[in-house]
Amino acid sequence: MPSVRILPDIYWVGVVDWNIRTFHGHTYSTQRGTTYNAYLIIDDKIALVDTVAAPFADELIENIKQIIAPEKIDYIIANHVETDHSGALPKLIKLCPKAKVLGTQKCKEGLYKHYYGKWDFQVVKTQDKLQLGKRSLSFIEAPMIHWPDSMFTYCPEEQLLLPNDAFGQHLASSERFDDQVDQAVLMDEAVKYYANILWPLSPLILKKIEDVQRLNIPIKIIAPSHGIIWRKDPAKIINAYISWAGNETKNKVVVVYETMWGATERMARKIVEGIVSRGISVKMFDINNSDRTEIAKEMLDSKGFLIGSSTHDNDMLPNIAGFLELLKGFRPKNRIACAFGSFGWAGGAVKEIEEVLKGAGITLAQSGIEIKYVPDEKELLSCHAFGREFAEKLKRG
Ligand code: FEO
After folding, report:
1. In the chain, is it the N or the C terminus that has fewer CB atoms within a 10 Å radius of its CB?
2. Over 90: is that where the pLDDT of 126 sits?
3. 23 alpha carbon to ligand 1 midpoint, in Å?
4. Whose CA is nearest to atom 1 of ligand 1?
5. Phi, psi dihedral angles at 79 (to 5 degrees)
6. Residue 31 CB: number of other CB atoms within 10 A?
7. How many C-beta neighbours within 10 Å does residue 162 have?
């Protein structure tokens, strides 16, 4: 994709990764691809904010060359060490003999431990300012949003916030701005991104948003390092982050289960009928046929979780166990949950699920339901009642 002017003398020079389907190892499925955004600011001095992943270094360099010769770059702002934003730096910097790299102290350490380059590095802190000419850049340290090195860059003259990973989405697109794309798709990817990357960091995110609000900096455009630039309504994504980071939930239940011969699934379907009969919205997933990234997205605004598994070797099945590890890592707050499942000669899965849920700080709304072998009509009625009871507890909050 060629470079795109986003403001007078400020250009998007990033790349679109149309084909990436997993991210962060295999923890995140990126079914709509992603972008790695880098921004070139032309003034008396020239600054590049972030780079791109290493396989796309040549494309980044070509995009810069459409605007200026790379040797003219004075500053490379490294908002974040992670290699999707710094991978192209070692190749690029060879073409920028006078460029100074700017970032946090942790960024300096992290970049060195990734690339072992002896680069001219200037450590910056919150409210440090870099004058480029008519424009300036100031910096806001954002540790653990989402790495220790993370930083936001702000251009006050353009009211432009460059927050790196924050406010991003994994969404490959030929369009660059929020007013050019389908709003439902955009928000779907923004929610997914928050749930799968930022959810555990919610307390820090709320605090950082408050810090930025206290700095009283007007924000007209948010240009993150992934996906679409927010220029139509940047408040929309800020307010969404405040809601997600505040663990605001709806009267909605996500049911996730793993079933061996179908009995646990039968239980799940009847429990769901019971919940729905009380007017509560449900999303149900068989873990073996579902995208975990999507499940996490649905859980982000759900007040209730129901986790089911057949018993195998006195324990839950392995894929639901893996999913619970993921859920534990999200550190959800203000949720209620319970467990269900079938067993053959001895139970165990329900108890194990309950232990993991309690360990994750999730309140058990009621004791789990276990059924031997395949549920009969009476037991299915018990499942329905179990769902109704959970729904009523959810409504009572
Ligand atoms: Fe997009 Fe934390 O890297």
Report:
1. C
2. yes
3. 10
4. 165
5. -70, -20
6. 15
7. 26
Give the residue whose CA is nearest to atom 2 of ligand 1: 82
The dihedral built from the CA positions of residue 337, 330, 333 and 243, taken in this order, carries a sign that is negative
Nearest CA to ligand 1 atom 3: 82
Task: For residue 82, report the distance from its CA to the centre of ligand 1, in Å.
Answer: 5
CA distances from 289 to 198, 256, 319 (A): 25, 11, 11
Three-state secondary structure string covering 220-237:
CEECCCCCCEECCCHHHH
Q: What is the sign, positive or negative, of the torsion defined by CA atoms of 141, 145, 150, 155?
A: negative
Under the banding of pLDDT at 50, 70 and 90, the label for residue 64 is very high
pTM, 2 dp: 0.95
- Given pLDDT bands bounded at 50, 70 and 90, which one contains residue 60? very high
Identify the residues whose C-beta falls under 6 Å from ligand 1. Answer: 80, 82, 84-85, 146-147, 165, 225-226
Mean pLDDT to the nearest integer, 32-46:
98
Closest to 208 in 3D by CA, of 259, 156, 166, 159: 166
Atom of ligand 1 nearest to the CA of 225: 1
Which pair of structure tokens corresponds to residue 40? 């070139």
Buried b (16+ CB within 10 A) or exposed e, 197-220: bbbebbebbbebbeebeeeeeebe
- Give the active site residues: 24, 80, 82, 84, 146, 165, 193, 226
Please say whether the dihedral angle defined by the alpha carbons of residues 81, 7, 159 and 228, taken in this order, is positive or negative: negative
Q: How far is the CA of 164 from the centre of ligand 1 (A)?
A: 7
Q: Is 2 exposed, middle or buried (0-12, 13-18, 19+ CB in 10 A)?
A: exposed
For residue 83, the ligand 1 atom closest to its alpha carbon is: 3
Which ligand 1 atom sits closest to the C-alpha of 146?
2
Q: What is the pLDDT of residue 33?
A: 98
